[in-house]
Design brief:
161 residues, mainly alpha, 2 domains, elongated, 0% strand, 68% helix
Length: 161
C-alpha cells in the first residue's frame, strides 16, 4: 500500500510539474506512468513495479526526470548519433562536427555548449532505467540504452562549439 501511495504521488507530481498547461501532453504522460500494476502481472512486471517505487521515492530521480522531460526530441537525433557511434566517428573529428551542426540545426554555434549540457542530462542512468521500467510495466521490451548516443552528441557539440 505504501508503494502504491509513493507511485501515485510521483505520477501526480510529474504530471503537475512537467506539463501543467498542456492537458494533452499531461494525459499522454499519465498514460505512460502506471498508477497500478497491470492485471495478472508477470514476474518481470512485479520486479519493475517494486523498482519503480524505489526510484519514485528518490528526490534526486524526480529532479532528474523533471530536468529531462521534454528537453530534446529523440527521432533523428538518436538516428544520427547512433550511426556515428556505430561507425566509430570521433566526436571531435570533422565528421563529428558536421553531424553535431546538423543536429543543432538553427541554434547558433555559441549556444552549442549549452545544448551539450542539456543533452548530458540524458546520460543519467536513472533516466534510462526509469524508461526501461515503464516499458516493462506497459508490456513492451526495453530499447537499447541511448545514454552512449547522447554522450557522443554532447562531446561532438562541445568539440564543435
Amino acid at each position: 500500500m505504501e508503494r502504491q501511495r509513493v507511485i501515485d504521488t510521483f505520477v501526480d507530481e510529474m504530471v503537475a510539474t512537467i506539463h501543467p498547461d498542456d492537458p494533452e501532453r499531461a494525459a499522454a504522460m499519465r498514460a505512460w506512468l502506471p498508477a497500478e500494476l497491470p492485471p495478472a502481472p508477470s514476474a518481470e512486471q512485479i520486479e519493475a513495479w517494486v523498482e519503480l517505487g524505489e526510484l519514485a521515492a528518490d528526490p534526486a530521480v524526480r529532479r532528474c526526470l523533471r530536468a529531462v522531460e521534454g528537453e530534446v526530441g529523440q527521432g533523428p537525433v538518436l538516428e544520427w548519433a547512433g550511426a556515428a557511434v556505430r561507425d566509430g566517428v570521433d566526436p571531435a573529428s570533422a565528421r563529428g562536427r558536421v553531424i553535431a551542426a546538423a543536429i543543432a540545426g538553427d541554434l547558433p554555434p555559441q549556444r552549442w555548449a549549452e545544448l551539450a549540457t542539456r543533452v548530458e542530462r540524458y546520460c543519467d542512468e536513472r533516466f534510462e532505467r526509469y524508461w526501461a521500467l515503464l516499458m516493462i510495466l506497459n508490456g513492451q521490451q526495453p530499447v537499447a540504452p541511448a545514454a552512449p548516443l547522447f554522450a557522443w552528441l554532447a562531446a561532438a557539440l562541445r568539440a564543435a562549439a
